[in-house]
Amino acid sequence: MTLSTRVVLSLLAGLAVGVAIAAIDNPTLEKLAHVIEPVGTLWLNALRMTVIPLVVALLITGVASASETASTGRLAARALLLFMLFMTVGAILSALLMPAVLSWWPVAADAAAALRSGASKAATLVPELPPLRDFFASIIPANPFAAATQGEMLPLVVFALLFGFAAARIAIARREPLLGFFQSVVDTMFVLVHWVLQLAPIGVFVLALGVGIRGGVGAAGALVHYLVLLCGLAILITLLQYPVAVFAARVAPGRFARAIAPAQVVAFSTQSSLASLPAMIERAKSHLGIPTRVTGIVLPLAVSLFRVTSPPMNIAIVIFVAHIYGVPLDATRLAAGAAVAVLTNFAVVGLPSQITFFTTTVPISMAMGVPVELLPLLLAVEVIPDIFRTVGNVTADMTVTAVLAPRSGSSDTHQT
């Protein structure tokens, strides 16, 4: 049984037991449940403990590697720029669309209260963001260590990005030990995160138990609402790739759909972009006329560095949590969230979704001043949106390849 399956079962079991305890109305059982609730808080704190060192080390090593990759050729550099463009547009779309959708189709008040009830009371303490002028002035941290201590994620992310780009410019003899140190930090944090995630079924069960006792079945309704929103957003992002391929790459819609379909099937069944790579390479050549010398650069780079659904869906998760807690999201908060969502994406490429979920959403939450206590419960159902995330990522990988191919003078993608 996979970890994702065990976490989902733990969530369902915790909700069911909590609802049953509430229905029985036995003071002894309720007291016992409250006694073990700190276990869930300890597990959540263990996850939060890993976020800042892991994100900083991943960004430094990932950006330095991407910078070196871009220097290997103009095609790779154009691919990286296009990746950034796609993810930025997706993050902006999500930041504008999700608040509007939640305003039109809000979570029922009793369901939101039920979901909130399972989180720590400290979650209601939402920090204030500075005025817009001060916000922009604080993007470059005067003291990155102070930013790390205070959990100021956007300045910390900017520092890590600049550090990574600078590290790629120093002599190889000096760069390798430096990046080796940060890679060692990454590897060490992965071990720690792995240990924490192995305890996820216990942590999620205890957290869900509290939700079930205080919120009952209403919390399940809020989770269903969340799943519909996230899966719908992923499907929208996937569908938007088709007109991009038609107008930017001059590929007939039917031709592009037939070319990408086998890779989408693999992505849907495996939840792995990497597993879809052979199908993408073969179909790009046989159905889109893109030679291997183009797909051999762009597609591996895309699978390694490009997850088009991550920024929009991760910011959507935080917007949903903000909606549950009634946190107002002005332009400053949304801009901070979109920026962190895009910039942290390069830090998590190739990582399991259980790790990337926290590594990406917690920094966005911290940048936007949104509580993080609900994230473990949302992780428990992430296996469902992750299917649609992967399909969207694979579709975007092929779209970017088709867009870049004519500009390399290497394809006949305009044919029908």
- At the first level of CATH, the class is Mainly Alpha
Total beta strand runs: 0
Count of individual helical segments: 18
Helix proportion = over 70%
Secondary-structure element string: HHHHHHHHHHHHHHHHHH
Tally of structural domains: 1
Report the uncertain regions.
121-127
Provide the structure class.
mainly alpha
Short structural summary:
The protein is mainly α.
Question: Any overview of this molecule?
Answer:
The protein has helices spanning 3-24, 27-70, 74-104, 109-117, 132-137, 144-149, 153-167, 172-198, 200-215, 218-248, 253-270, 273-288, 292-305, 310-325, 331-343, 353-368, 375-380, 383-407. With 416 residues, the protein is an all-alpha fold. Helix 7 (153-167) packs parallel to helix 15 (331-343) and helix 12 packs parallel to helix 18 (383-407). The longest helix has 44 residues, at 27-70. The relative contact order is 0.18. The model is unreliable at 121-127 (pLDDT under 50).
Summary tags:
416 residues, mainly alpha, Proton glutamate symport protein, 80% helix, globular
Task: Give the secondary structure arrangement, pairings included.
Blueprint: H1 3-24, H2 27-70, H3 74-104, H4 109-117, H5 132-137, H6 144-149, H7 153-167, H8 172-198, H9 200-215, H10 218-248, H11 253-270, H12 273-288, H13 292-305, H14 310-325, H15 331-343, H16 353-368, H17 375-380, H18 383-407
Helix pairs in contact: 1-9, 2-7, 2-8, 2-9, 2-16, 3-13, 3-14, 3-15, 4-9, 4-10, 7-15, 10-14, 10-18, 11-12, 11-18, 12-13, 12-18, 13-18, 14-15, 14-16, 15-16
